[in-house]
Amino acid sequence: MYLVTFRLDPGEYDAEFHELNDAIQAAAEAIDGYLGKRTWHDPDSEDVLVVYYWESLDALDEFGAHPDHERAKRRWTEWYDAYEVTVTEVLDAYGSGFGVDADPPQ
Fold it and tell me: At 101, is the pLDDT very low, low, confident or very high (cuts 50, 70, 90)?
């Protein structure tokens, strides 16, 4: 499994952002190998972390090449003050579990 952590410093969102964001989420969900996502908001800094769960790098590459995702990557300065993406391979995961909040999200 692979985790893609998208950390962002939000700027101003407009209607076009929300339309594109919804289209990108729909594109991710349509890809075989997309396992879900979780979002966290830091109340102190206003940073947002979105962690996407992927079954394979092939699925992640397919998502990265999607036209809506490509368009959003070109226009990030319109909506974010800063961002970073980290791709991590999960080698092991363990713990007591979180029931319906288990990762990857169901």
Answer: confident
